[in-house]
Design a protein that fits this description.
The chain is an alpha/beta fold and 372 residues long. It is built from 15 helices and 9 strands.
Length: 372
Amino acid sequence: MSFSTLADAYQSFDFSACFHSVHASEVRNVLDRAGSQAPLDTRDLLTLLSPAAQDFLEPMAQIAKNLTCQHFGKTISLYAPMYISDFCCNHCTYCGFNANTRFPRTRLTLEQIDREARAIADTGIRHILILTGEAPKKTPLSYLEDMCRIMTRYFSSIALEIYPMTETEYRGLKQAGADSLTVYQEVYDKSIYKAVHPKGPKSDYTFRLLTPERGAAAGFRAVNIGPLFGLGDPASEAFMAGLHARYLEQTYPHVEISLSLPRMTRAGGAISPRHLLSDRQFVQTLLAWRLFMPRLGITLSTRESAAFRDQLIHLGVTRYSAGSRTDVGGYHVHTTGTTVQFEVTDTRSVNEVAAMIRHSGYQPVFKDWEIF
């Protein structure tokens, strides 16, 4: 059974009725079991994401902090995103790179990729996340494999956030040096997914949903998933993402599974968020995921403000991006005149983010993996 079968079972589930049926006594019961490190089930995750649980954020935070320290120590891993192409044939209504948006498209040459990688490595970063739009004719497998070989000169961990591929294609990229895969479902609600992906290969809901499984089967060391908060109902989307992460953890126990909490920010030609995730709901989601999956990696990007990121460091986050640029060649090759996929909110340098982590009593980790 793939996750598709499990996801389909929840398409007609009445999340609203379920969430609003939860009472405070049920939340206390779940917290008692989480505090004693008893495993939580999917009903418990629904309870922790319910409106009733919003009155228990403080005890949830204390348990989350203890679980995170137990499994990860007081460390925060750092990484940087690097965009190498903004060509895209999809029509995602929320993305600044969608095919309908008119702007000069860019694809870095291999020489430019080398210069861009060197500029990022000079900041001390050793974990890189490579991003492209979905345009296989512009960024074919051979180009991506060449890119990975260049990245191995500078980085100990190479993660990919590119268009979905087959298991065989992922094996080729792994052989070229990539070790991790990030793929966001964006929204688990099928009807909303169809509305915001009207045309292009990304409109295939199931092929995208099963991408993390193909990556895990291909042998990637780590897989990172998540919804884009702003498209569907936040609580039900958070539940589906947690369900997806639990499925991957149980099916591929040798793979490190992580979740991200990206919130929609401004982008050229993109729609506004349909469902806002408040700061309070953001914290509740992060804590619920940590209690549900104590060994889960949790990634926080520079979409969030510096002040907000500083407050979350004690609550279960294990990975921060730093010094991010979201335009192609933004670190060195093209410093002006390019289009960003989304606006960065925390604009601090790598050194400034690392200093904040140390000041908070944690150790910034630039390298915790090596490809041999």
